[in-house]
Amino acid sequence: MLKEGQVRIPSGCAISGVFSKDGTPVRGDRMIESIAVMHDRSNGLGGGFAGYGIYPEYANNYAFHVFYDNLEAKQQCEKFLELHFDVINLSKIPTRKIESITDEPMMWRYFVMPLSHKLADSQLDEKEFVARCVIRVNTNIDGAYIFSSGKNMGVFKAVGFPEDVGRFYRLEEYEGYCWTAHGRYPTNTPGWWGGAHPFSLLDYSIVHNGEISSYDANRRYIEMFGYRCNLLTDTEVITYIFDYLLRRQRLTLEEAAHVIAAPFWSTIEKMPEKERETLTYLRNLFAGFLITGPFSILLGFEGGMMALNDRLKLRSMVVAEKGNLFYAASEEAAIRVIEPELDRIWAPKGGEPVIVRLNQKCQEGQGCR
Amino acid sequence: MKRVYVNEEWCLGCHLCEYYCAFANSGKESMIDALKGETIHPRIQVEDGGEIHFAVSCRHCTEPLCVKGCISGALTIEDGVIRLKEEKCVGCYTCVLSCPYGAIMPGEGKAVQKCELCLNNTHGTPLCVQGCPNRAIVFEER
Amino acid sequence: MSLEYIYPEFEVIRNPERCIACRACERQCANEVHSYHEEKGVMLADESKCVNCHRCVTLCPTRALKIVKTDHTFRPNANWTWDVIRQVYRQADTGGVLLSSMGNPNNYPVYWDKMLINASQVTNPPIDPLREPMETKTFLGKKVHRVERGKDGRLINNLEPGIELTTPIMFSAMSYGSISYNAHASLARAARELGICYNTGEGGLHEDFYEYGPNTIVQVASGRFGVHKDYLNTGAAIEIKMGQGAKPGIGGHLPGAKIVADVSKTRMIPQGSDAISPAPHHDIYSIEDLRQLIFSLKEATNYQKPVIVKIAAVHNVAAIASGIARSGADIIAIDGYRGGTGAAPTMIRDNIGIPIELALASVDQRLREEGIRGEVSIVVGGSIRSSADVVKALALGADAVYIGTAALLALGCHLCRSCQSGKCNWGIATQRPDLVKRLNPEVGTERLVNLVRAWTHEIKEIMGSMGINSIEALKGNRLMLRGIGLNEKELSILGISHAGE
Question: Does residue A178 carry a catalytic annotation?
Answer without folding.
Answer: no
